[in-house]
Every structure is written in C-alpha cells, then in structure tokens.
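User: Okay, second chain of the day. Same drill as before: sequence in, structure tokens out.
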Amino acid sequence: MNDWKNAGFGVYIHWPFCLHKCPYCDFNSHVSREINQTAWRKAMVSDIRKSSMELPNRRVDTVFFGGGTPSLMPPETVAEIITEIRKVWQLDPGAEISLEANPTSVEAGRFAAYAEAGVNRISMGIQSLRDDDLKRLGRMHSVAEARAAFDIARHQFDRVSFDLIYARQGQNINDWSAELHEAITMAADHLSLYQLTIENGTRFGDLYARGKLRGLPSDDAAADMYLRTQEICDSHGIPAYETSNHARDTAQSRHNLIYWRYGDYVGIGPGAHGRITRDGQKLATESYTAPNMWLNSVKAKGWGRKSAEIISAPDQASEYLMMSLRLAEGSDMERFATLNNQPLSAKTLHELQRDGFITFGNRVLQTTDKGRPVLNAILRQLL
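Assistant: Same drill. Structure tokens below.
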C-alpha cells in the first residue's frame, strides 16, 4: 500500500547538541563540551546511506535539520549530508531544505555557508521579544541579537520563520498582543506560535511540581491568548494552516506538512523517529536516544536504528486523523475509510457538526473555530 504518496517523502536530521538546556525543553538535546565533528559527520552520512538501502528510488521532497541546535553544526557537515541525500535518493530540484537556528551572533555568522551548502529555509528559535522573558526561558540571546540575526537571515534566505512562546510567566493578553504585532512587523512569512507547556522531566516541570513556578496565566487566560493570536494573524494575512503554525500564502512548512498529511519520512540521528512504507507495510522507526549509544550503533551496524514496528491499518487511520485534523484543510474521509476499512461513525459526526465543532462535506472533515481549541476532545469522540 502506498498511501504515503498522498503526502510525499522527507528526511529529518536530528542534531542532538546544545550549548545550554532550556528549562522548558523536553526534546532530545544534550550539552557536550567536546564533539568529534568528523565522527558525527561520518555517522550521519552512514545512517542516511543505510536508510536508503531499504527505500531505494525515492524522490526527496523536503529535508529538515532539527535538534538540539543544528545551527551549531559545521556548515561542511550540513553540506556533506545534503550531498549524500542527493547521491542516494533523487533530491527534488525544488526541495525545501530547512534548518533550525538560534539567533546568537555565532550561529548567525554561519548563514551564508549554510545557504551555499543548500539550505533554503531557516526556522529561528526566537521565543520572545522581551529580554526579561528570554532570561526566564533560559535563552542565551537578547532581543537585539534576535532581531539582528533575523535581518541577516532574511537577506540570505528566501524563506525565514521564527518561533514565539506565549502564556509565559507574568504575561497577560495585552502584553502578548503587543508582542505579536511587533513580530508581524518583522516580515516573517511563517510564524510558529506555541503556548508554554510544562513538561515532566524538565526544569520547569520540577519547579511546577514543587509549586515554585509562579505567575503562569490561568487556563482561561491562555485560551484567550490563543483566540487573540488567531484574530491578529488573520487580520495580517498570516492565517493558521495548522494548530500552532501561521503562514502567508505558499509559505507553509512543506516538511511539516508531510508529517501532518501522513506521508513518509526517514529519521536520521539520535532519538529521531520515522514513518516509512516498505514492502507495502507502514513502519514506525525509532533511533537510539543517547548520543553515544546511537554513535556506537552506527559504528557497529551502519545506522542508529533501535526499532521498526509495523503499524496496523486501523492504527494508521488513527494516526492520519490525529495529524491531519490539526490542519485547516482538514482530513480526507475517503483516505481515512480506506486505511480503516470502515468510515467514522455517522452519528458522532452528526452530533459534532450539530454542536458546531466540525464541518463535514465533499469528503473533507474540518474543525471549526469553536472546535480547534478542543481538538483532543473531538479526536477522543471520533476514535
């Protein structure tokens, strides 16, 4: 079964290293004083080469360097990885090649070299346009550095996105509205706007559990910030095409759309996950998380893969719905029914539509403005 062709094929590269662990971050990131760059470059190339052997003759639509802090990668490593992808697969001439970057002066200075290597889109982790909040979030840059780095990126790349976090400590809806207006004046074509989430196992999670993370907005206040976000972005022509992502026309993240439209993607690097179709079966792949364990696996076996589990057709249908219903474009119900061998409950669909949470017509299921903030509850009813 080649359902993945409805969405395309991407390659995700995970660089696990950071200069500093942010207190809210639960991604697979590690602080390391010494990194053997030659060993890591060879290992990444080996992981790609081995992965290509089980998925030959694929056309790569997108490449995404995430992390961690991939803008700490030497540009020659980025160049060699892109060269290897082009060598073992067919890299689409118009492929989107994105790299996440922190807006420090050290990393911004590498932008020209990344562009020369083949990167054509930068996603910047700015997170806040308030210096006090940047300190609270554990960020290592100032607002002035962020703006300067963004200006450099905007002149170096055709497409630049950046992230902001809202519902921060001590923040109210007027503060956030003013900050979002400032962000929009910076002329980004894509904004990722995330509500601060307190995750277990993070520094913020530990503080919250002990009652020491004060000043967080109430759930109602955070919900109001979400709604205000939609209003402001809509009025400036940057609508939400996904729950937390806003873009001008044609500026959507094509790589992330592969995830949300449930295409295939290979995960390269420590902790990277993948969804691949091999011999008609959809597989969920997972790599070793610990950097040294991943590196040792590559040395021993040629890649860092830990496991590959077959995903049943009903589970594929559930995953497809959970991902695609995050999109403004919604979910294709014929595609869902084909994966699931049966359609969704007509009674449940009718009730959700009657109550104003979804629209359903021309085989497309979409959430409404009312339904989008309670998507998880809608999915529980549907599935």
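The chain has a mean pLDDT of 94.

User: Thanks, on to the next one.
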